[in-house]
Amino acid sequence: xxxxxxxxxxxxxxxxAVIAGKGIxxxxxxxxxxxAGLSVKLIGFEEETKPELIDRFPESDRKVIKVGQLGKMxxxxxxxxxxxxxxxxxxxxxxxxxxxxxDLKTAAILLKLKRKxxxxxxxxxxSEIENIGVQQLDARSFxxxxxxxxxxxxxxxxxxxxxxxxxxxxxxxxxxxxxxGQGVVVRKGTVIAVEAFEGTDPMLRRxxxxxxxxxxxxxxxxxxxxxxxxxxxxxxxxxxxxxxCHIQTAALEAGNTIILExxxxxxxxNAWKMEILGFSPSGxxx
Length: 286
Fold this sequence. Notes:
The chain is α/β, with parallel strands linked by helices. The protein has helices at 25-35, 51-54, 70-80, 104-112, 118-131, 162-177, 200-208, 236-244, 262-271, and strands spanning 16-20, 40-45, 62-65, 84-88, 135-136, 151-152, 183-187, 190-194, 215-219, 233-234, 247-253, 258-259, 275-279. It folds into two domains: 16-136, Rossmann fold (3-Layer(aba) Sandwich); 147-279, Cytidine Deaminase, domain 2. Helices cover 33% and strands 19% of the residues. The mean pLDDT is 91.
Protein backbone atom coordinates (compact mmCIF):
# COMPACT_ATOMS: atom_id res chain seq x y z
CA UNK A 1 0.00 0.00 0.00
CA UNK A 2 1.45 3.36 -1.06
CA UNK A 3 -0.45 5.39 1.55
CA UNK A 4 -3.49 4.72 3.72
CA UNK A 5 -4.80 8.21 2.92
CA UNK A 6 -5.25 7.63 -0.80
CA UNK A 7 -8.75 6.99 -2.21
CA UNK A 8 -9.71 3.37 -2.85
CA UNK A 9 -9.89 4.02 -6.60
CA UNK A 10 -6.51 5.79 -6.80
CA UNK A 11 -4.98 5.40 -10.28
CA UNK A 12 -1.15 5.33 -10.11
CA UNK A 13 -0.94 5.95 -13.86
CA UNK A 14 -2.25 9.52 -13.56
CA UNK A 15 0.14 12.40 -12.78
CA UNK A 16 0.00 14.11 -9.38
CA ALA A 17 0.48 17.87 -9.26
CA VAL A 18 1.95 19.14 -5.99
CA ILE A 19 0.76 22.67 -5.18
CA ALA A 20 3.76 23.78 -3.16
CA GLY A 21 3.87 26.46 -0.49
CA LYS A 22 6.65 27.37 1.92
CA GLY A 23 9.20 25.25 3.72
CA ILE A 24 10.36 21.65 3.55
CA UNK A 25 6.91 20.02 3.60
CA UNK A 26 6.53 20.15 -0.23
CA UNK A 27 10.05 18.73 -0.65
CA UNK A 28 9.26 15.75 1.58
CA UNK A 29 5.98 15.14 -0.26
CA UNK A 30 7.61 15.30 -3.70
CA UNK A 31 10.41 12.95 -2.59
CA UNK A 32 7.87 10.43 -1.25
CA UNK A 33 5.80 10.51 -4.44
CA UNK A 34 8.91 9.97 -6.55
CA UNK A 35 10.05 7.15 -4.26
CA ALA A 36 6.71 5.45 -4.95
CA GLY A 37 7.51 5.61 -8.68
CA LEU A 38 4.65 7.95 -9.53
CA SER A 39 4.57 10.83 -12.00
CA VAL A 40 4.74 14.21 -10.24
CA LYS A 41 4.41 17.80 -11.47
CA LEU A 42 4.86 21.05 -9.56
CA ILE A 43 2.90 24.28 -9.20
CA GLY A 44 4.91 26.76 -7.15
CA PHE A 45 4.35 30.32 -5.99
CA GLU A 46 6.59 33.35 -6.38
CA GLU A 47 8.31 34.30 -3.11
CA GLU A 48 6.85 31.24 -1.37
CA THR A 49 8.06 27.95 -2.89
CA LYS A 50 11.74 27.13 -2.32
CA PRO A 51 13.73 27.78 -5.55
CA GLU A 52 15.72 24.59 -4.95
CA LEU A 53 12.54 22.53 -5.23
CA ILE A 54 11.43 24.30 -8.40
CA ASP A 55 14.83 23.64 -9.98
CA ARG A 56 14.42 19.89 -9.43
CA PHE A 57 11.69 19.81 -12.07
CA PRO A 58 12.18 20.16 -15.83
CA GLU A 59 10.41 23.20 -17.31
CA SER A 60 7.75 20.97 -18.85
CA ASP A 61 6.79 19.64 -15.41
CA ARG A 62 6.65 22.89 -13.43
CA LYS A 63 4.82 26.20 -13.34
CA VAL A 64 5.43 29.14 -11.02
CA ILE A 65 2.54 31.55 -10.46
CA LYS A 66 1.67 34.42 -8.15
CA VAL A 67 -0.48 33.82 -5.07
CA GLY A 68 -4.06 34.37 -6.19
CA GLN A 69 -3.78 33.28 -9.83
CA LEU A 70 -6.35 30.50 -9.63
CA GLY A 71 -7.28 30.70 -13.31
CA LYS A 72 -3.64 30.09 -14.29
CA MET A 73 -3.44 27.23 -11.80
CA UNK A 74 -6.46 25.50 -13.32
CA UNK A 75 -5.09 25.93 -16.86
CA UNK A 76 -1.78 24.45 -15.70
CA UNK A 77 -3.48 21.39 -14.18
CA UNK A 78 -5.22 20.78 -17.49
CA UNK A 79 -1.93 21.20 -19.39
CA UNK A 80 -0.25 18.73 -17.02
CA UNK A 81 -3.14 16.27 -17.60
CA UNK A 82 -3.09 15.81 -13.84
CA UNK A 83 -5.42 13.29 -12.27
CA UNK A 84 -4.71 14.47 -8.76
CA UNK A 85 -3.39 17.44 -6.80
CA UNK A 86 -2.00 17.64 -3.30
CA UNK A 87 -1.48 20.87 -1.36
CA UNK A 88 1.72 20.90 0.69
CA UNK A 89 3.21 23.82 2.57
CA UNK A 90 1.81 27.04 3.96
CA UNK A 91 1.22 30.29 2.11
CA UNK A 92 2.29 33.29 4.21
CA UNK A 93 -0.97 34.21 6.03
CA UNK A 94 -0.63 37.97 5.47
CA UNK A 95 -0.54 37.34 1.70
CA UNK A 96 -4.30 36.81 1.91
CA UNK A 97 -4.60 40.49 2.87
CA UNK A 98 -1.55 42.14 1.31
CA UNK A 99 0.43 40.77 -1.61
CA UNK A 100 -2.44 38.81 -3.14
CA UNK A 101 -2.70 38.97 -6.95
CA UNK A 102 -6.27 37.83 -7.59
CA ASP A 103 -7.24 37.09 -11.16
CA LEU A 104 -10.88 37.14 -12.25
CA LYS A 105 -11.47 33.59 -11.03
CA THR A 106 -10.10 34.32 -7.58
CA ALA A 107 -11.90 37.66 -7.32
CA ALA A 108 -15.20 35.97 -8.10
CA ILE A 109 -14.62 33.39 -5.35
CA LEU A 110 -13.62 35.98 -2.75
CA LEU A 111 -16.70 38.04 -3.56
CA LYS A 112 -18.97 35.08 -2.81
CA LEU A 113 -17.39 34.19 0.53
CA LYS A 114 -19.06 35.67 3.60
CA ARG A 115 -16.28 34.38 5.85
CA LYS A 116 -12.72 34.70 4.62
CA UNK A 117 -10.34 32.38 6.43
CA UNK A 118 -7.98 29.58 5.43
CA UNK A 119 -10.75 26.98 5.52
CA UNK A 120 -13.25 28.87 3.35
CA UNK A 121 -10.68 30.18 0.85
CA UNK A 122 -8.80 26.92 0.32
CA UNK A 123 -12.04 24.96 0.42
CA UNK A 124 -13.35 27.08 -2.47
CA UNK A 125 -10.10 26.56 -4.37
CA UNK A 126 -10.32 22.79 -3.84
CA SER A 127 -13.87 22.82 -5.21
CA GLU A 128 -12.75 24.69 -8.34
CA ILE A 129 -9.96 22.14 -8.85
CA GLU A 130 -12.35 19.21 -8.54
CA ASN A 131 -14.82 20.94 -10.89
CA ILE A 132 -12.30 20.45 -13.74
CA GLY A 133 -12.05 16.72 -12.99
CA VAL A 134 -8.86 16.75 -10.89
CA GLN A 135 -9.15 15.04 -7.50
CA GLN A 136 -7.75 16.86 -4.46
CA LEU A 137 -5.88 14.35 -2.28
CA ASP A 138 -5.63 14.23 1.49
CA ALA A 139 -2.52 16.29 2.34
CA ARG A 140 -1.25 13.44 4.56
CA SER A 141 -0.92 11.18 1.52
CA PHE A 142 2.51 9.63 0.89
CA UNK A 143 3.97 10.82 4.23
CA UNK A 144 2.37 8.32 6.63
CA UNK A 145 5.73 7.85 8.35
CA UNK A 146 5.88 11.56 9.23
CA UNK A 147 2.74 11.57 11.40
CA UNK A 148 2.64 11.88 15.18
CA UNK A 149 2.36 8.58 17.09
CA UNK A 150 0.19 8.05 20.14
CA UNK A 151 2.00 8.29 23.45
CA UNK A 152 5.58 9.42 24.21
CA UNK A 153 7.78 9.96 21.14
CA UNK A 154 10.88 11.16 23.00
CA UNK A 155 13.04 9.49 25.65
CA UNK A 156 12.80 12.38 28.09
CA UNK A 157 11.12 11.51 31.39
CA UNK A 158 7.56 12.73 31.68
CA UNK A 159 7.49 16.49 32.29
CA UNK A 160 3.84 17.53 31.93
CA UNK A 161 1.32 16.53 34.59
CA UNK A 162 -1.64 14.59 33.21
CA UNK A 163 -4.31 16.97 34.55
CA UNK A 164 -2.59 20.00 33.00
CA UNK A 165 -2.13 18.14 29.74
CA UNK A 166 -5.82 17.21 29.64
CA UNK A 167 -6.72 20.84 30.28
CA UNK A 168 -4.58 21.93 27.32
CA UNK A 169 -6.17 19.35 25.04
CA UNK A 170 -9.65 20.46 26.11
CA UNK A 171 -8.89 24.14 25.40
CA UNK A 172 -7.21 23.36 22.07
CA UNK A 173 -10.21 21.34 20.92
CA UNK A 174 -12.60 24.10 21.93
CA UNK A 175 -10.80 26.85 20.03
CA UNK A 176 -10.57 24.48 17.05
CA UNK A 177 -14.33 23.92 17.28
CA UNK A 178 -14.83 27.69 17.21
CA UNK A 179 -12.51 27.91 14.17
CA UNK A 180 -10.15 30.28 15.99
CA GLY A 181 -7.01 28.18 15.64
CA GLN A 182 -5.61 24.74 16.38
CA GLY A 183 -2.95 25.36 19.01
CA VAL A 184 -2.67 26.65 22.56
CA VAL A 185 -0.06 27.08 25.26
CA VAL A 186 -1.18 26.36 28.83
CA ARG A 187 0.49 26.31 32.24
CA LYS A 188 -0.91 24.61 35.35
CA GLY A 189 -4.51 25.07 34.25
CA THR A 190 -4.06 28.59 32.88
CA VAL A 191 -4.33 29.49 29.19
CA ILE A 192 -1.18 31.43 28.29
CA ALA A 193 -1.65 31.91 24.53
CA VAL A 194 -4.11 30.90 21.81
CA GLU A 195 -3.25 30.45 18.15
CA ALA A 196 -5.22 32.57 15.71
CA PHE A 197 -4.65 33.53 12.08
CA GLU A 198 -0.99 34.45 12.62
CA GLY A 199 -0.01 30.80 13.10
CA THR A 200 1.83 28.61 15.58
CA ASP A 201 5.27 30.18 15.81
CA PRO A 202 4.09 33.74 16.64
CA MET A 203 1.81 32.25 19.31
CA LEU A 204 4.75 30.43 20.89
CA ARG A 205 6.78 33.64 20.93
CA ARG A 206 3.92 35.44 22.68
CA UNK A 207 3.82 32.69 25.30
CA UNK A 208 7.57 33.06 25.72
CA UNK A 209 7.19 36.70 26.81
CA UNK A 210 5.78 35.43 30.12
CA UNK A 211 9.19 33.89 30.89
CA UNK A 212 7.70 31.13 33.01
CA UNK A 213 8.17 27.38 33.33
CA UNK A 214 6.05 24.22 32.91
CA UNK A 215 4.28 25.48 29.78
CA UNK A 216 2.66 22.93 27.47
CA UNK A 217 2.07 23.45 23.75
CA UNK A 218 -0.92 21.52 22.38
CA UNK A 219 -1.76 21.07 18.69
CA UNK A 220 -5.02 19.48 17.61
CA UNK A 221 -7.48 19.38 14.70
CA UNK A 222 -11.08 20.39 14.16
CA UNK A 223 -13.81 17.78 14.49
CA UNK A 224 -14.60 18.27 10.79
CA UNK A 225 -11.07 18.90 9.56
CA UNK A 226 -10.67 19.13 5.78
CA UNK A 227 -7.41 17.24 5.28
CA UNK A 228 -7.19 18.24 1.64
CA UNK A 229 -5.56 21.51 2.62
CA UNK A 230 -5.53 21.92 6.40
CA UNK A 231 -3.18 19.60 8.28
CA UNK A 232 -1.35 20.69 11.46
CA UNK A 233 2.42 20.65 11.01
CA UNK A 234 5.24 20.49 13.55
CA UNK A 235 8.90 20.77 12.58
CA UNK A 236 12.41 21.63 13.68
CA UNK A 237 11.79 25.38 13.46
CA UNK A 238 8.87 25.10 15.88
CA UNK A 239 10.97 22.98 18.24
CA UNK A 240 13.71 25.62 18.18
CA UNK A 241 11.20 28.36 19.02
CA UNK A 242 9.83 26.24 21.87
CA UNK A 243 13.35 25.97 23.29
CA UNK A 244 13.90 29.73 23.00
CA CYS A 245 10.59 30.32 24.78
CA HIS A 246 11.26 27.72 27.54
CA ILE A 247 8.37 25.47 26.50
CA GLN A 248 9.48 21.91 27.25
CA THR A 249 6.42 19.88 26.24
CA ALA A 250 4.57 19.52 22.95
CA ALA A 251 1.40 17.41 22.73
CA LEU A 252 0.29 16.63 19.17
CA GLU A 253 -2.83 14.85 17.96
CA ALA A 254 -1.70 11.41 16.82
CA GLY A 255 -2.28 10.38 13.22
CA ASN A 256 -3.39 13.88 12.26
CA THR A 257 -0.31 16.06 12.89
CA ILE A 258 2.61 15.97 10.47
CA ILE A 259 6.08 16.01 12.04
CA LEU A 260 8.42 17.14 9.27
CA GLU A 261 11.79 15.33 9.35
CA UNK A 262 10.44 13.30 12.23
CA UNK A 263 13.63 11.43 13.13
CA UNK A 264 15.67 14.65 13.18
CA UNK A 265 13.08 16.43 15.32
CA UNK A 266 12.97 13.59 17.88
CA UNK A 267 16.76 13.37 18.07
CA UNK A 268 17.04 17.10 18.70
CA UNK A 269 14.23 17.04 21.27
CA ASN A 270 16.03 14.27 23.13
CA ALA A 271 19.30 16.21 23.01
CA TRP A 272 17.55 19.25 24.51
CA LYS A 273 15.66 17.07 27.04
CA MET A 274 12.31 18.18 25.68
CA GLU A 275 9.13 16.10 25.65
CA ILE A 276 7.02 15.37 22.56
CA LEU A 277 4.00 13.13 22.89
CA GLY A 278 0.93 12.23 20.89
CA PHE A 279 -2.62 12.05 22.14
CA SER A 280 -5.40 10.02 20.61
CA PRO A 281 -8.22 11.56 18.54
CA SER A 282 -10.54 10.88 21.48
CA GLY A 283 -8.59 13.56 23.36
CA UNK A 284 -6.91 11.33 25.94
CA UNK A 285 -3.23 10.52 26.19
CA UNK A 286 -2.63 6.79 26.43
